[in-house]
Structure formats: C-alpha cells, structure tokens
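Progress note, project year one: complex with flavin-adenine dinucleotide.
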Amino acid sequence: MLLEEQKMMKDVAKKIARDVVAKHAEEVDRLGEIPWENIRVLAENGLFGVHVPEEYGGAGSDMLSHVAVIEEIASACASTSVALSTQALTMAPFLLAGTEEQKQKYIPRLAKGEVLGSFGITEPSSGSDVSSLTTTATKDGDDYLLNGQKVFITNAGESEIYVFVTRTSEDRTNGITLFIAEKGMEGLTFGNKEDKMGIRGSVTREVFLDNVRVPKENMLGDEGKGFKILMNVFNETRPVVGAQAVGIAQGAYDYAIDYVKNRKQFGKTLDNFQMIQAMAADMRMKIEAARLLVYQAATKLDQGEQDVALHSSMAKCFASDMAMSVTTDAVQLLGGYGFIKEYPVERMMRDAKITQIYEGTNQIQRVIIGNYIFKS
Ligand SMILES: Cc1cc2nc3c(=O)[nH]c(=O)nc-3n(C[C@H](O)[C@H](O)[C@H](O)COP(=O)(O)OP(=O)(O)OC[C@H]3O[C@@H](n4cnc5c(N)ncnc54)[C@H](O)[C@@H]3O)c2cc1C
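Model obtained:
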C-alpha cells in the first residue's frame, strides 16, 4: 500500500525507533519526563514536518507517510509519538486556515521541531461537548483579551506556540474563534503536571488565561469559524491517533510473540500451544485491519475525498479499541511477568488507553459514524 517514498520515510522512523527511541522508553515512563533527547533526534531527521509543505519548513510528503512515521515511533515509545502528534495537531489549524503571514511566522519552527506547540480546546466543563466552551475573546481596540481556563493541555508550559479555542459570541457553534498565543504573554499561566496512567513522558497541564492580550492578527481563521476549522483539524488528526494505537499494539505484539517462542511450560515453549497460537492470530488480524483503516483514512485525506470525517473516525475508534485489546492480550501472554514493570507490555497497555479518550472519545466517534449511517 505504501509507495517507495512513503516506505523510505517509514524505514527512517523504524531505524530511529529501534536505535534511539526504544532505549529511553522505560526511563521516560518511569521518570515522567519529556523525552527531549528523542525529540532532538526526531527533529534532526525532519520527522516533525513529514506532511508539511516544503515552503513552511516541512518535508513536503503526505499524510500517509506521516501516519506511517507516527506508527513506528509509537511502537517503541508512545510518549515520544505524542510529541509528534501534538505538533501535528497544533500545525493543522495553521495549515487549514492560517493567513500566509501566520503560516510563515509559526509553522516552520514547529515543522522543524525547534519549538513545541499546544492546542487548547478542552475546559473543565467542556470536553466532548466542545461547543459549550466558555473561554472568551473580547475585542479591545485592535486587540483581543482572552479569559478562561483550559484543562488537559498536552505540552502546556513546555510549548512556545499555543492555539486556543475561544468564544467570541453566544452562538453555540458560530461563536467560536481560534487565537494564537505565545509563551511569556502576560496573563498566560500553567497548572501543575497531571500525574497520568500512561503517556507519562508527555506533559499535561491546566492553562489559565487572565486578560491575555493578543493582536487581532493572531485570530486564526475568520471570526466565528472556529468550530468548522476544529472539525477539519480532527479529520486530519484522528488517523494520527489511530496510527499511534497501531504502533503501540505492534510493539506489544512483537514483544509477546518473541516471549512465547522462548518461555517453556509443560516441557515445551508456549508457542506450541494452540490456544496461544489462536491469541496470536487474533492479535495479528486486528493490528493489520486497524492499520489498513488508518492508511485508508490518510489516503482519503491526501486525495481530498468528501467522506474523510467518517473514515478518520472509524480509523481512530477501531485502532484504539484494537490497541487496548491487543496490549491486554500481550500482558496475558507474558503471564505474571506481563504485570511487572520490568517488562514493556505493562507500559504499552497503560499507554494504549489514552488513544480511546483523546481527540474525541470513542463514544463520540461512534456518534459521528452513526450519524453518517443514519442521517446522511
Ligand atoms: C493525557 C491527555 C491529553 C490530552 N490532551 C489534550 C490537548 O492537548 N488539548 C485539548 O484540548 N484536550 C486534550 N485532552 C482532553 C481530551 O480530549 C478530553 O479529555 C476528551 O475529549 C473527553 O472530554 P472529557 O474528559 O471532558 O470527558 P466527558 O466529555 O465529560 O466524557 C465523559 C464520558 O462520557 C462520554 N460521553 C460524553 N458525551 C457523550 C455522548 N453524547 N454520548 C455518549 N457518551 C458520551 C465520553 O465518551 C466519556 O466516556 C487530553 C486528555 C488527556 C487525558
């Protein structure tokens, strides 16, 4: 399914995953620290901007290459893949709706991995129901004043560039507008690091906006068009989360298969038992099916097809449910050792969980898919 150039990108990522990223994965999880060394190597190899046009500092490749790269990095360390996926999430509204000036000013630094970016959507009372958000942007002369609170923002406090989803009028969906902010702006502060179950090497914090003054040039897309931009952003980023899930599952599968080939019980290695073979067969089928859905969604994005929202939701939902199932089975295949932190499948099972939650929970993906089936 991958063309030569896409395979080359995937191979580069595979090598980095094996030679660099995998070596730090256990420590990154244990210490709960951002994998700066991995990020540096990813940046040096141009992996932050795989799908970004060359004129904005990217490699000028496509979404299919992008998801293939994410998959490889996630197979070694999900936390490191979150650095890539959050960067893509932050760049997406610029690429989709930014002015030429905004694109030139912000995208190259993000695409080259020189700085990190964050996208602030979620609020204490506004999660799945994005259009209920209450952070406001109020016009004040030639500027806007941003006020409110965001929660669960990946890389908050570490990022230099922020996109915030705000309300510029009472209209539920047509009153939503995006703004760009930068670290160091007066009134932009961050909460403590959340202590998380998984992807512990990515930082998640609250963000407080207290009269943050941004010039009107920092409005990203037209006033009131934020909700539509956001939905288009999700079309692009949900397959990326799907790719992350496929990678995590592949990493756990590879480890478990190797383990059962070597672990002896009842005088034979475990791979001789039919029940173990059947589990391995199910895991393999699920991973391959999820990968195809992710690649299909990415291809539809590359080809600009109409039904991309449906395919992005299906890819994200199926792949993340698959990752939870496959990593749980991987733990099972290792028996008691699977439950012990010394073995990586335990981390992978914890890391898989977030892929069912962020970028729209899997219930929300099913709502979207159901709407396509019955209302379109
Ligand atoms: C580690 C981590 C990183 C994150 N990173 C970011 C980030 O960088 N930027 C950002 O903006 N957000 C981020 N999020 C937030 C994430 O996207 C939200 O947590 C998610 O969208 C769910 O919102 P919620 O937590 O408020 O849950 P709720 O919306 O309160 O949902 C609770 C439960 O109810 C279900 N539910 C809600 N509505 C329906 C419905 N209509 N039908 C059926 N079930 C429903 C949900 O599926 C879920 O199971 C992150 C979260 C985490 C944990």
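The chain has three domains: 4-111, 117-223, 227-375.
Residues 226-262 form the longest helix (37 residues).
No further modelling is planned for this target in the current period.
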